[in-house]
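I hope you will forgive my troubling you with a question about protein structure. I should value your view on which stretches of the chain appear to form regular backbone elements. Here, with my thanks, is the record as I have it:
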Amino acid sequence: MKHSQTYNMKELKTAVGAIVIEGPVSSKTLQQLDFHEQLTAFRPPEQQKEALIEIANLPEGRIIIARHHHTIIGYVTFLYPDPLERWSEGNMENLIELGAIEVAAPFRSYAVGKNLLIVSMMDDAMEDYIVITTEYYWHWDLKGTGLNVWDYRKIMEKMMNKGGLTWFATDDPEISSHPANCLMVRIGSRVPQESIQEFDSLRFRNRFMY
């Protein structure tokens, strides 16, 4: 069964014309749009477009896109955590992961990433979810931006804050493997206390190991 979703849209007026931020979009919409050739952070553009189409077809999957004319120039994905990650072990129906956010390099000066997150959280259904994102420095475009890990981390945190996500501590080994990595979380206003406690137990496995 498809989870509750409400479509939202915002238009950014920029020097290169209107950029439309919209979603959640369907797999059919994604198939009909072109995909910018510089969206290469995770895999080649054609493969990444196919991955987005697959996520859009998942019951919990949400894709918010940034579109310049007929071309997707940015996106953010939401889906259940990878089965290999600790965050999936509680089988929590109200925990979803911001799996990826990417903006094509020529459009990064137009606050597209920030607005992708703002539009994502316009949907009232997000108040029923704990939204997490795991930030790993090896996914960051340090070479393309010329930033060091700490400056890039500040930019990522500031952007995630626009979507209501804030830093949370965890003892997850992969996140703890480098001090620039981090877990960021947004807890919806209707998430019950027992879900928050369950999430806390996922964040800290070794709390009582001394």
Q: What stands out?
A: Helices lie at 27-32, 45-56, 112-120, 142-145, 149-162, 173-176, 193-203. The chain has a mean pLDDT of 93.
